[in-house]
Design goal:
Layout lengths: L1 E6 L1 H5 L3 H10 L5 E5 L10 H5 L1 H17 L4 E4 L2 H15 L2 H12 L11 E4 H6 L3 H8 L9 E7 L6 E7 L5 H18 L6 H12 L9
Parallel strand pairs: 1-2, 1-3, 3-4
Antiparallel strand pairs: 5-6
Helix pairs in contact: 4-5, 4-6, 9-10
Length: 219
């Protein structure tokens, strides 16, 4: 199990909480132990970066410092903007000893642990895409043979239809599987609609004629 410092940022904390929920649910299945950072703020997004670059640098250095204090080598993010800001700040701090010393002096004055520059910032998706992440994600799926359902909805004639058809083929995967069935139903409707059958009998006959063979799951 790889232990990482987890910074969810503002997005996953407020407007997209499902991102945080899904990350916490999936991470253990991918061999990741999340050490969530609590005493951190926003990374500044793009606004503070442009308006107050030094303030932006302090904000992100503070996040990096708390991540390093967990003992983790990786700071994991789930937001593209957070990833960019933190990586840019980290690059600046790692490449300039005088800058790092000045930032640390300011942070230590307000009780933040010093940052030595030994943290790598990585997006959660990189952890999935690289190494064994993709294979672990596949293995974590609830059903390895799961296939998408096939949907198709149509009507006839246009613009004043007298029949509408909705077709769902479980695990059919593509609408190209469902569309011909809808076509069969519509054709059968026009062939049979002048008969003396009741609507219920007509629908039953049409759907029985149009019923497809079972779609075999892929192995």
């Amino acid at each position: 199990m790889k232990r990482v410092a987890y910074y969810k940022g503002c997005l996953a904390s407020l407007s997209a909480k499902e991102l945080d929920i899904s990350t916490k649910a999936l991470a253990p299945r991918l061999g990741l132990e999340l050490d969530e950072l609590e005493s951190v703020t926003c990374c500044g997004a793009g606004d503070i970066h442009e308006a107050e670059p030094d303030y932006y640098l302090h904000l992100n250095a503070r996040i990096l410092a708390y991540a390093e204090a967990t003992g983790c080598e990786t700071l994991m993010t789930v937001c593209n903007v957070c990833t960019l800001n933190l990586r840019q700040a980290n690059h600046m701090l790692q490449g300039d000893e005088a800058l790092l010393a000045r930032i640390n002096e300011n942070l230590e004055s307000v009780g933040v642990p010093p940052y030595s520059g030994n943290v790598e910032v990585r997006h959660f998706l990189w952890e999935i895409a690289e190494g064994e992440g993709y294979e672990k994600l596949q293995a974590a799926a609830h059903n390895a043979n799961y296939r998408n359902n096939a949907w198709f909805v149509g009507y006839s004639p246009s613009p004043d239809p007298d029949i509408a058809v909705a077709v769902l083929v479980m695990q059919g995967q593509h609408s190209s599987v469902a569309a011909p069935i809808a076509g069969d139903v519509i054709r059968a409707y026009y062939q049979e609609k002048d008969s003396n059958r009741t609507p219920a009998q007509l629908v039953s006959q049409i759907t029985n004629k149009a019923r497809p063979a079972a779609v075999a799951p892929e192995h």
